[in-house]
Amino acid sequence: MRIIYHIARADFLERVRRYSFLILLGICATIAYAIIPPAGATESGVALGDYRGLNNSAWVGTMAAVISSVYLFLVGFYLVNNAVKRDQDTRVGEIVAASRIGNYAYLAGKMLSNVAVLWSMVLVVEAVIFVAYLVKHETGSLAPDKLFLPLLINSAAPILLMAGLAVFCEAFHWLKRGVVNVIYYFLWIFLLMAPMEFFSDVDLRSPAGQMLDICGFATSYESFRQELRAQDPEYKGSFSLNFPLLDRTDKTFLYQGSILTSYPWAYRFVWLPAMLLLLVPAALAFHRFDPARSGRRESKEKKPPRGEASRPWETAGIGAISFVDLPPAGRRFSILRQVKAEMILLLRGRAIWWKLVTLGLFVATAFAPLTIAHQALLPTLLFFQVLVFSGMGFRERAHRTHEYVFAAAYPLRRQLPAAWLAGFAWALALSLPIMARCLVTGNLYGAWMPVLGAMAVSSLALFLGIFTGSGKFFEVLFTMIWYVLLNGAPALDFVGGYPESFQLGVPLYVLGVSLFCLSLSFFRRSRQIQAGLAG
Q: 201: which DSSP letter?
């Protein structure tokens, strides 16, 4: 336990001393305060039909717990799923590998550090909720248990699950980070909706019901609904969680906080031993920073075939080469060659199954019914390239080649535009069947809107890659956009599949986002070049 504690403590202190962590806490505090509607408000992030709860201790605490735990359950995983990778990148892992620290103790310490980081965010939210209650309360006196306990209860199980899953996924080197980021988004949706959609027959007052309702979303909804029906029997049972886009409400009701006394929420803590057991196979499979097992195997020198003498220029040292033997240097630059090189970097190393699925979806967009192909298949085809686009902007830093790239001639005028053009050209090439079919059928909007969509995808990927130094933000954001669009949201239709998106002004928004992201990308990259580092 002593080793686990010191690993967790060292990792936690290393994280919280960063400016990025302070900025993150500031964002959490701002959102937590904005969650609580002001006294007398007609809008609320949690609405039950036309109703919202009066701002007493129970409603403020429970509503903040619902919104905070739901979004923390999504964002928290992406914040802590780099603990092992950070040690690998900073070469601290080599020290760990040479020490007597066991695999299980190391991973358990990282998991405990993840828990501490996430709990620190929860405590900040709790403090802000208290301030928001003092400023915005409408009725009743302060009840600390009803104000503070709902968030602590609702966030406990998600924090344990996120911390354990993050370490578990990092222990297996063959689990690609981009794939894990995408899969977790759908796991989040499943775990969030499972108690109400897939296991609706399980009583939430039973141990099984509480273990399934990991973040307390279904329990909170049922508690809201039952108390409101007791006050208004005509309430139809509708419920919406729509923060930060607030729902309009015309009526209020008094919520007493039955969630604390009517449900056996302590059974959610069964996830703690489950996560500790999950670390056992992770410890057995952990590569322990061995390059031969971690996927960072050094390339071997090619030996000449047996019986064949090596060529003299292959074995000669640098000193044996004279400058007169080198071809004359010329000032030749071709943007097409640069774009081709960036395209090769963009698509290199893709598995055969990825190529087959991409080809299948591409062919399907050419022959499937046009409405289905435009509204569903094309967004899915572009979404399937999320790991391709997510490498834009930070590839140089990830492979530690930024010193060479920034030292080349005119990196801001040559390399960066070429990188953007490669992403744009790939997204546009995948959209060609839809564009051609729309042009033939006279749908001019559907023919040119994918051009703006390709610009937006490339610009957003480049912008997030340069500013964040990681591909996870683009992976998560693009996954969310694709999922919402696939469920019929014209406001996010960046490919022009829904005619009503034109009336909503989507083309202007898409073009504006593209130009904004692209201009900021050039600005940030120029600062990186001046500073001599990437990020």
A: T
Please enumerate in sequence order all residues whose Cβ is within 8 A of that of 276, keeping only pairs 6 or more positions apart, or say none. 108, 164
User: In angstroms, rounded to a whole number, what is the distance separating the alpha carbons of residues 202 and 146?
Assistant: 26
From CA 326, how far away is CA 304, in angstroms rounded? 24
- The per-residue pLDDT for 511 is 93
Classified as helix, coil or strand, 240 is strand
Half-sphere exposure at residue 193, Cβ-oriented, CA atoms within 13 angstroms: 9
Question: What is the four-CA torsion angle of 15, 19, 23, 24, rounded to 10 degrees?
Answer: -10
Q: Does 434 have pLDDT greater than 90?
A: yes
- Main-chain phi, psi angles of 350, to 5 degrees: -80, 140
Question: Do 51 and 240 contact (CB within 8 A), yes or no?
Answer: no
What band does 208 get if pLDDT is binned at 50, 70 and 90? Answer: confident
> Each residue of 176-202: pLDDT tens digit?
777 888 888 888 888 888 888 888 788
Backbone angles phi, psi at 33, to 5 degrees: -70, -35
Q: Using CA atoms of 251, 257, 262, 268 in order, give the dihedral in degrees to the nearest 10.
A: 110
Q: CA–CA separation, 453 vs 447, rounded Å?
A: 11
What does the alpha-carbon distance between residue 294 and residue 175 come to, in Å, rounded to a whole number?
11
Cα→Cα distances 419→32, 245, 313, 459, Å: 38, 35, 34, 10
Three-state DSSP at 128 gives helix
Only one residue has tokens 């960063």, namely 18
Write the burial class of residue 107 (CB in 10 Å: 0-12 exposed, 13-18 middle, 19+ buried): buried
Amino acid sitting at position 53:
G
Round to whole Å and give the CA distance between 385 and 434. 17
Give, in order, the Cα–Cα distances in Å from 475 to each of 229, 392, 424, 471.
41, 11, 17, 6
CA proximity to 119, closest of 62, 169, 83, 79:
79
Residue indicated by tokens 């729902």: 247
SS3 string of 66-117? HHHHHHHHHHHHHHHCCHHHHHHHCCHHHHHHHCCCCHHHHHHHHHHHHHHH
Look at the block and give the residue holding tokens 């919202």: 52
| For residue 244, cis peptide bond before it (omega within 30 degrees of 0) | yes
Buried b / exposed e across 211-226, counting CB within 10 Å, b at 16+?
A: bbbbbbbbbbbbbbbe
Both tokens assigned to 35: 């969650």
Give the whole-angstrom CA distance, residue 78 versus residue 183.
12
Residue closest to 147 by CA, chosen among 123, 164, 165, 129:
129
Report the sign of the C-alpha dihedral through residues 215, 178, 176, 102, in that order: negative
> Would you say 86 and 166 are in contact if contact means Cβ atoms under 8 Å apart?
no
Hunting for tokens 């500031």 — which residue is that?
A: 26
DSSP 8-class letter at 303 = P
| Encoded tokens for 75 | 């964002």
User: Please, which residues bridge with residue 241 across strands?
Assistant: 46
Rounded to two decimals, the pTM is 0.71
